[in-house]
Amino acid sequence: APEHNARSFTEDGFYRTGDIVRVTGSGHIVVEGRAKDQINRGGEKIAAEEVENHILAHPAVHDANVVAEPDPYLGERTCAYVILRSGAGPLKAVAVKRFVRERGLAAYKVPDRVEFVDAFPQTGVGKVSKKDLRNAAARTAPSSSPS
Q1: Beta-ladder partners of 38
Q2: Measuring CA to CA, which residue among 57, 73, 64 is closest to residue 111?
Q3: Listed residue (106, 100, 107) closest to 64, CA to CA
Q4: CB burial of residue 38 (10 Å; 0-12, 13-18, 19+)
Q5: What ranges do the domains of the chain cover?
Q6: Average per-residue pLDDT in the chain?
Q7: Which end of the chain is more exposed for a tag (fewer CB within 10 A), N or C?
Q8: Is the CATH number of domain 15-140 3.30.300.30?
């Protein structure tokens, strides 16, 4: 499968793992995340984990996952799936957006859409299936960007 090898290896022979890494000044390698967990919103790169961590700081939030959804103008936009804590009471999407902005998250990183769910889809080994979340977001994505 020469075509597969051409996609899987860099020109200088390194295997493309899908990890995003950086080299520190001291020569150490730091894994920053996964390429599929990075959202390209109109040319701006957004690390899903950074946004998730801000959402998780909300006292009513039990868990959160952020994925890309297609957008006809931006290419991709962000959709946050949120599970509330038991007994947390209602929480609105606008309150989540306001909370992350007040924590200092850049405006372009604030989720374009927030969906509240009871559970996340799981892979066969019990991990959250971001692939299934991306597919769900794509199926329910608005047909145009918010103005």
Answers
A1: 47
A2: 64
A3: 100
A4: middle
A5: 15-140
A6: 89
A7: C
A8: yes
Q: Which pLDDT tens digit goes with each residue over 65-111? A: 999 999 999 999 999 999 999 998 899 999 999 999 999 999 999 99
For 62, the token pair is 């039990």
Alpha-helical segments (H) within 31-129: 48-56, 93-102
C-alpha triplet 55, 60, 64: angle, nearest 5°: 35
Give the Å distances, CA to CA, from 23 to 20, 27, 29, 50, 122: 11, 6, 5, 19, 33
- Per-residue pLDDT of 15-27, as tens digits, reads 777 666 788 899 9
- Report yes or no on whether pTM surpasses 0.70: yes
Instruction: Return d(Cα 14, Cα 20) in angstroms, integer.
Output: 13
DSSP β-bridge partners for residue 21? 31
